[in-house]
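STRUCTURE REQUEST FORM
Protein name: Roadblock/LAMTOR2 domain-containing protein
Source organism: Allokutzneria albata
Requested output: structure tokens
Priority: standard
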Amino acid sequence: MSDQVISVAKRLRQEVPDCLASGVVDMATGMLLTCETTDSHPSEVLDLLAGATLDLFQGRTVTMIEDIFKERRGVTSSERYFQEILVNSTNLTHLFVRNNQSSDVVAVVVCPKSVNIGMLFAATRRVMKEHMSMM
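Status: completed
Returned output:
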């Protein structure tokens, strides 16, 4: 699995327009499995990225929202509602995408804020579909 995870991060870096960094987070452990970037970053920042990803998708409040939606809609599965999250910071756009085959795996893509959002989603989804289904 580690070769596949590394391959996904590399393909995201290569194929997503203007991609500055990509990574894969394991939600079960809260660890960053791999990272590809154009710049060096302190390990503390990378560790925080994994924790922030975990909070975005499985934080207490997010889980409560998902549970309320499931209850109101009569859904009994353990499927997660939030599959993709887009975050814009001052200069960057961050896209977080769950793996359809394993909801514990999330890919992270970071681009300049000027990125074409449609192309960002399309390229990220394509790479995820092609490579993460093998995991």
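Reviewer notes: The chain has a mean pLDDT of 89. Residues 14 and 22 are 10 Å apart (CA to CA).
Form closed.
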